[in-house]
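A sample follows:
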Amino acid sequence: MRVTFIDNLLLEQGADGYHFDLQPHLGLISLLAVLRQGGHQGTLIDPKLEVSSGRLLLDASLYENIAELVLASQPDVVGMTSLGCNFMATAKIAAHLKRRSPDLPVLLGGPHASILDVAVLQRFPQFDLVVRGEAELTLLPLLDSLHSRQFSGLLGITHRSAQGVHRSPDAPLVADLDTLAPAAYDHYPVAQAGQELLRVEAGRGCPFACTFCSTASFFGRRYRLKSAERLCSDLDRLHETYGISHFALTHDLFTVNKTKVREFCEAVAPRGYTWTCSARMDCVDSELLDAMARAGCRSIYYGVETGSPRMQKEVAKRLDLALFWPTLEATSRTGMESIASFITGYPQETAEDQQMTLDLIGEAWIRHADMLTTQLHLLTPEPGTELLDQYRDQLAYDGHISDFNLPALEADDADITRNDPEIFVNHHYYRGVLPRQRHVLVTSVYRALCRLNRNVQRHLLARYNNSLGGFFDDLLSWAGTDADAPSDAPELLQTYLAGRWGAEDYLLSLVRYLLAASDPVRGASGGAAGLPEPRSHSTHPLLQLSPVPPCSGTSMPVRRSWTC
C-alpha cells in the first residue's frame, strides 16, 4: 500500500519575519519506519519545504497546490498531522484532496485531532478517521482494516459510520521506546533543507500538570526516555549518514531522570557530538550540568513561564523562582547557553504579575549579556488543558496572529476560525483581568526590542531604573492616551521614544538603526532569502558590542520565536 504523509504547515514568526523550521517531523518519520517494516511504501511531503524554496506561494492557491502535490504521489492512503495553530491548513488541504479524489482515505492524527477527535469528524467530512495518541502500534492493523472498514478491536481509533462517530478505547503508550524502529530520516531531504542540526527524539511524556499545557494529554504523564545505548545509536547513524554532529534532543523535560541522563552523558561524551535539550530548573543541579557540558551539551531550554510566584501556583507550574539565578549562573559557568521562556496573557494575570515577569526578563538582560536568550510569548489556549476547562466561557476572538498561528489565506479562513472556537481555540484568547490590548502590545513591542542588541537594551532599561516592567508601564500609559499611536510595533516604539526623549536622542538613533537593519522586508538579519544584508558602516560602540545571543537550536519547536 502506498501511504503519503503530509507534515504540518508551520510558520514561525520571529523578530525578523517568518521562518521555516525545516526539520523532519519526528512522529511521521517514526511511522514511516513502521510502514517500511510492514512492507508498505511511504512518502513524506513537507509543505514548508515547498514554500521556503519558492515552488509554492504563501497565498490563496497554497492549499489546493499542496493537494495536487499529494495526489501526484499516487497514494492509496493519505495521513495528515496537525497542531491547533495550523489546523485550518490541514482541513483545507484535506478538503481539496476529497474534492479531487472522493474515495481516497484521509487519516488524521497529532495532538489537536487526538483531543478533539469527535468534534473534528462531526464538523469536517473530509477526514475519514482519526488515529489518537501514539500511532506506532496502531498503524499497521489499521491499514489492514481500511478496505473492509471493520475497525472493531482496534484501539485508539475514532471513525465515522452511517450511525455516527464511534470512538474506541485509547491505545496503550509505547512502553519501551527502544523497541521502535529507527526513524526514517531518509524520507526527508536533509541535505536540501540545509540544516546543520538534526532533531532526535529522546523520549516522551511529562509527569507534571501545568494548567496551560496539553503535552500530557497527548503523550501521557508517564515519563519515558530512550536508553543511552539506543540514543547514541540514533546519533551515530545520523552522523554516519549525513555528517551532522549537532543534535537537538527532543523531550519536553529531558533531565527528569537524572540517572538516565548521566548514563547518556557517559556514553555520548567520547563521540564528540554537541547537543541541546530542554529541562525544568528544579530538575538540574550543578553536578548534572557539569556532566552535560562535558558530554557536549551546548544549550538548555528552560520553561520558566512566569516571574510571579503567585502565578506559578495559579498555573500549577510550581517552579521555585529562587532557583532562577542560581540555575542560570550554574549553566553559564559550564559554558552552556540558557534559553529562558516566559508567557503572558493568562486570564488570572494581574498588572503586578506581568510586571514581575517583565522585570525578571529585564534583569536577565542586565546580568547575563552573552549566555542567555529570553523569550516572551502570548498565551495560546490549548484543548485538553485545565485552563481551558476553567475559562472556556471567557474565550474571545480578535483575529490577532501571534507566534505560530497561521494567517488567513483563503477568503473564508477568518470566518471559519471566528465561528468555531472549539476547533480553532488556538486562534482565540481568554478575556481576563488585564485587557487583551495590553497583552498584544507588550508581546509585540517585546518582539521589536528583540531586534536591538544587548547593550542598547541595557541603555534603554537604565532610563527606567533598570526595570523592563517600568518601561512598559510608561509605554502603556502613553499609548493609552494617544489616539494617533501607530499599531506597528517598531514604529510605535520609535514614536514613543521620540515623544519621551526627543527626536535627536542618541538612543532613539540607535534604535532606529537597529530596527532598520533587521527589517525583514528591507532585508536583514535572518529575514527573507535573497534580500540585501544590512549596512554595517557605523562605528558606534553600542552597535558593535554584546549582540543579542541567537536562539541556539532549542529542542522546543513551539517556542522558538520572539527571542532575545
About this structure: The mean pLDDT is 89. The chain is about 40% helix and 15% strand. The longest helix spans residues 351-367.
